[in-house]
Amino acid sequence: METVPEPDPEPEPEWIEAVATAYCSCEICCEEWALNRPDGIVYTASGAEAVQGVTIAADWSIYPPGTVLFVEDLGEMVVQDRGGAIQGQKIDVYFESHDDALQFGRQNVRFYIVND
Length: 116
Ligand SMILES: [Zn+2]
What we know:
There is one protein chain. The protein is mainly β. The chain has one domain (16-113): RlpA-like domain (Barwin-like endoglucanases). It is built from 2 helices and 6 strands. It has helices at 27-30, 98-104, and strands at residues 16-23, 55-57, 68-71, 75-81, 91-94, 107-113. A 6-stranded mixed barrel has the order 1-5-2-4-3-6. A hairpin with a 3-residue loop joins β3 and β4. It is elongated and about 70 Å long. Bound molecules: zinc ion (ZN). Zinc ion (ZN) binds at residues 23-24, 26, 28-29, 98, 101.
């Protein structure tokens, strides 16, 4: 009898456990940066426009801008922003509304790196 080789299992991604917080473009979240919104467009520190569901802030010495992280329950997010309090493995998730950011609050999440 011919044996069909089992397909190689997908390698288990290397999950990183981290704390996630949330922010929006308001003055409470961004302080003086909130005043710099030409035409109401929210630009991140990388120059990319902030988009809810995509934009996160991270420590650029670990996750440089453009790094794609798959965050459990959130999906693929792109490092586009940074912040003084965002150090180490911590990530900060962008929301369009301050209420949504508050609702997200502070959570333990896990993610893995999709690209470098
Ligand atoms: Zn806010």
